[in-house]
């Protein structure tokens, strides 16, 4: 008499891996949203089964447990990395972020400081599985045969899950907020949705014409009232402050992780930024400036300040568009005989700057080998060493009779903000000692000190009185999960918002001479920096036929600009509020830029929301249509 044999679950590796990986996807939801969201369980289950079913159908039974063990490891690593990515950047990575994994070793100190012990729960099952298999291997447990009925069941259920996932992806197509999309779709289907969206956009753009796109951009921008008076946008009227620094040297300093709140801040009676405070007294100072970077972070800030083009948010612009001939500030000043150089103490391959700098048309770049490594941090040399090398080069160019545009990218205030003890210039009170906030203010104070040494060098070499000095922050520094706004307020006596204050960066323009400083309250973003600088340098973007997505902040009365990646798509800033999209506009939230208090009546800003979405879409279309550089023609 034949006995009915019931195979244990472990004889079907696909089944117990389904359970284990589903648990890990729920764990991801908990880490991201602090809620497992049981009602969304089906989204994760359907997508996961499709993935596992493919491997179940193509893998021979005897190799099943090995293949699924490796798959378990890979998925666990991806979920671990995604959790770490979200904790560090505050945004959900797509498959394109995997292209940047080679950057991790360059910022290992930053990454290590973000890891929390509970993140290792993703790997808890792996050693247990390994031990169980080693024990069962001694007993020579037979592999389960893949019968026709079993295979048919796998195929049918996978097809059913495919259609359910497809319907879910289609239903979420109108959601512009990436985080909400992840909540609805789950991690796996979100990756599919991102790939489909990119494919559709690329298909449209492939048959596009850049001149048609430029006209659409111009037509759209003409619908927004940037100026109260028609003369403000007239082509026949010279803009205010035009050419105030015409023919002068241009020095632009991009300060790493530099937020605006330390400006004019005192800690225990000590000025955190004494040199910048003094400089502001004779400069244009824009206190309502906000970051707009995308996946490329610091390199995206370099991209924007030189091009006035939105980052796409899906890939670092240096990686995705470093093969283009980018319309840029270096190309503009070249027409006036300028040499354009850029300086950074790290290796030029970091963030693919080796592609970005030729794309922006810098004449030369000066990276790691040019500096004496004083081991300030993981990147190498200090800001003081950066400025020493740069001033020597600026002096050489000036002595040759040419004007120069010099870009300087600092790193001494990079996360995790550790300044060598012998270089600390400020003493934190006991309440801040050893905290990220205390470390951050110490690093910012050193950055400010180094700027003071640069100014002294420029004066000593006779360059100060013939040079424009621009300084701005590339992006936020303080990590929100380690710095509760109420605690910051209690420590520093200032009002601090976890988003507005975090994204608020300084923007300072000092012209030659000791003119009286001017605080410009016009709200702006990193897209607006280049048009503002160009106006002061006597370069008319309109006459140059330059397509800019930002505006000259000295010649507008109203502004609106979008931000994505660190905020969900559809989010924007205008003169009054920061708006953060929900599923769409109606369920979004708004906060006053001036009071940092919630704004509940924001319906009057719907047109700004629609405008920004269209403008960012056209920016993506424009940059994707830019011609690729020809070999030997940088």
In short:
This protein has 634 residues and is α/β, with parallel strands linked by helices. Helix content is 43%, strand content 10%. Helix 2 (41-58) packs across helix 7.
Q: What does this molecule look like?
A:
The structure is a single chain. With 634 residues, the protein is of the alpha/beta class. The chain has two domains: 9-204, no CATH class; 213-625, Alkaline Phosphatase, subunit A, CATH 3.40.720.10. The protein has helices spanning 13-33, 41-58, 64-89, 108-114, 125-138, 148-171, 178-206, 210-221, 274-280, 298-307, 317-321, 329-334, 353-360, 383-399, 436-460, 485-492, 500-503, 529-536, 541-544, 606-625; strands at 249-255, 266-267, 270-271, 284-285, 289-290, 339-344, 364-366, 404-409, 467-473, 504-505, 507-510, 518-519, 524-525, 560-563, 571-574, 577-580, 589-592, 598-599. It has an eight-stranded mixed β-sheet. It has a five-stranded antiparallel β-sheet with strand order 14-15-16-17-18, covered by helices on one side. The protein has a three-stranded mixed β-sheet with strand order 10-5-13. β2 and β3 form a beta hairpin. α1 (13-33) runs antiparallel to α2 (41-58), α1 runs parallel beside α3 (64-89) and α2 crosses α6. The N and C termini lie far apart (82 Å). The model is unreliable at 1-10 (pLDDT under 50).
């Amino acid at each position: 008499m034949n006995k009915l044999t019931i195979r244990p679950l472990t004889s079907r590796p696909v089944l117990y891996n389904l359970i284990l990986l589903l648990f890990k996807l729920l764990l991801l939801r908990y880490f991201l949203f602090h809620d497992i969201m049981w009602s969304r369980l089906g989204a994760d289950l359907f997508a996961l089964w499709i993935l596992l079913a493919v491997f179940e159908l193509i893998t021979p039974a005897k190799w099943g447990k090995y293949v699924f063990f490796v798959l378990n490891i890979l998925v666990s690593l991806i979920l671990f990395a995604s959790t770490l990515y979200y904790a560090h950047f505050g945004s959900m990575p797509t498959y394109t972020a995997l292209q940047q994994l080679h950057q991790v070793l360059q910022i290992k100190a930053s990454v290590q400081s973000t890891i929390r012990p509970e993140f290792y729960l993703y790997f808890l099952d792996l050693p247990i599985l390994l031990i169980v298999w080693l024990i069962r291997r001694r007993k020579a447990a037979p592999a389960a045969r893949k019968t026709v009925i079993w295979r048919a069941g796998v195929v049918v259920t996978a097809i059913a899950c495919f259609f359910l996932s497809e319907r879910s992806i289609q239903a979420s197509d109108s959601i512009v907020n990436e985080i909400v999309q992840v909540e609805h779709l789950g991690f796996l289907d979100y990756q599919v949705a991102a790939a489909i969206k990119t494919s559709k956009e690329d298909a449209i753009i492939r048959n596009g014409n850049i001149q048609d796109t430029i006209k659409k951009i111009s037509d759209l921008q003409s619908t927004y009232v940037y100026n109260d008076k028609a003369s403000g946008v007239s082509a026949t009227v010279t803009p205010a402050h035009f050419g105030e620094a015409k023919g002068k040297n241009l020095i632009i300093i991009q300060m790493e992780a530099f937020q605006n709140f330390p400006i004019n801040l005192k800690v225990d009676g000590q000025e955190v930024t004494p040199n910048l405070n003094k400089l502001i007294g004779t400069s244009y100072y824009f206190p309502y400036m906000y970051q707009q970077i995308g996946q490329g972070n610091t390199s995206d800030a370099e991209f924007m300040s030189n091009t006035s083009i939105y980052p796409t948010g899906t890939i670092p612009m240096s990686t995705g568009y470093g093969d283009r001939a980018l319309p840029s500030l270096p190309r503009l000043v070249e027409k006036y005989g300028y040499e354009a150089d850029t300086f950074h103490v790290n290796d030029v391959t970091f963030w693919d700057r080796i592609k970005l700098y030729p794309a922006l048309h810098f004449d030369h770049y000066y990276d790691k080998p040019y500096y004496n490594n004083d081991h300030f941090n993981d990147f190498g040399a200090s800001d003081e060493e950066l400025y020493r090398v740069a001033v020597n080069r600026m002096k050489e160019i000036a002595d040759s009779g040419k004007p120069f545009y010099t870009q300087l990218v600092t790193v001494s205030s990079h996360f995790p903000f550790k300044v060598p003890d012998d270089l600390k210039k400020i003493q934190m009170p006991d309440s801040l000692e050893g905290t990220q906030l205390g470390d951050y203010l110490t690093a910012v104070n050193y950055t400010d000190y180094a700027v003071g040494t640069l100014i002294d060098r420029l004066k000593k070499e006779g360059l100060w009185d013939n040079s424009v000095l621009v300084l701005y922050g590339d992006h936020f520094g303080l990590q929100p999960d380690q710095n509760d706004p109420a605690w910051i307020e209690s420590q520093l006596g200032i009002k601090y918002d976890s988003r507005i204050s975090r994204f608020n960066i300084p923007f300072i323009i000092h012209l030659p001479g000791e003119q009286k400083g001017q605080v410009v309250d016009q709200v702006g973003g990193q897209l607006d920096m280049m048009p503002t600088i160009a106006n002061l340098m006597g370069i008319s973007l309109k006459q140059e036929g330059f397509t800019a997505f930002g505006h000259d902040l000295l010649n507008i009365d109203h502004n609106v600009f979008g931000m994505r990646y660190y905020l969900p798509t559809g989010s924007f800033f205008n003169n009054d509020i920061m708006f953060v999209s929900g599923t769409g506009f109606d369920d979004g939230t708004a906060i006053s830029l001036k009071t940092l208090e919630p704004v509940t009546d924001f319906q009057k800003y719907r047109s700004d929301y629609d405008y920004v979405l269209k403008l960012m879409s056209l920016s993506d279309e424009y940059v994707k249509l830019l011609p690729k550089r020809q070999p030997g023609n940088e």
